[in-house]
Amino acid sequence: MLKKTLPPRPWLFPRPVLLLSSRDAAGRDNIITVSWAGVACTTPPMLTVALRKTRHSHGIVSASREFVVNLPTAKQREAAETCGTASGRDTDKFVAAGLRKAPAAVVAAPLIADCPINLECKVRHVLPLGSHDLFVGEIVKMHVRHAMLREDGGLDDGALDCLAWGAEEFLRVLARRNHLRAPRFQ
Ligand SMILES: Cc1cc2nc3c(=O)[nH]c(=O)nc-3n(C[C@H](O)[C@H](O)[C@H](O)COP(=O)(O)O)c2cc1C
Description:
Layout: E1 15-16, E2 18-23, E3 29-34, E4 37-41, E5 46-52, H1 56-64, E6 66-71, H2 77-83, H3 93-97, E7 101-102, E8 111-112, E9 117-128, E10 132-144, E11 161-165, E12 170-174
Antiparallel strand pairs: 1-11, 2-3, 2-6, 4-5, 5-10, 6-9, 7-8, 9-10, 11-12
The structure holds flavin mononucleotide.
The site of flavin mononucleotide has 20 residues, from β3, β5 and α1.
């Protein structure tokens, strides 16, 4: 395989596309599209999101130490674009993106009702890295659309319809059941 050696960049693909909702001390809600994100721990369940220090959401989450990660489907592609380009400093992104709110169970930040999976998180660690700070959030409650759950309580891979980020564009990830044999691991 012929390869070119290049200066280092964080080239890890595809990246999940998430809509992170937050609420400031005055009760104003915001949404930021996040792709620098991943699963970090099983027990307790933890995830990471990397927020650039200049984002309005960075200030809100740093102060409230809470957020909700909402998983959009391809239907919310335009909303993900709006929440990933406009700033909550001057835009109500729930209105601009046409997304509906629902109350969370534990945190003050709202769920995005239109997204089939919502993960309520409390910030447990913040790691300053450079341009971005890494927020490690513990998932303290989750909400999953009924139709995506199997009878045994597991997630039905066949029902997955997610957005991902490639190098420079959105990708639609549609699972095909039994397409690839899966190993068992913990
Ligand atoms: C697909 C996509 C992924 C993004 N991922 C991140 C990210 O992981 N971290 C980040 O700080 N900004 C990310 N951004 C940029 C922010 O979403 C964008 O700057 C947003 O307008 C910030 O909103 P806020 O100022 O209301 O917080 C992403 C944008 C897009 C379109």
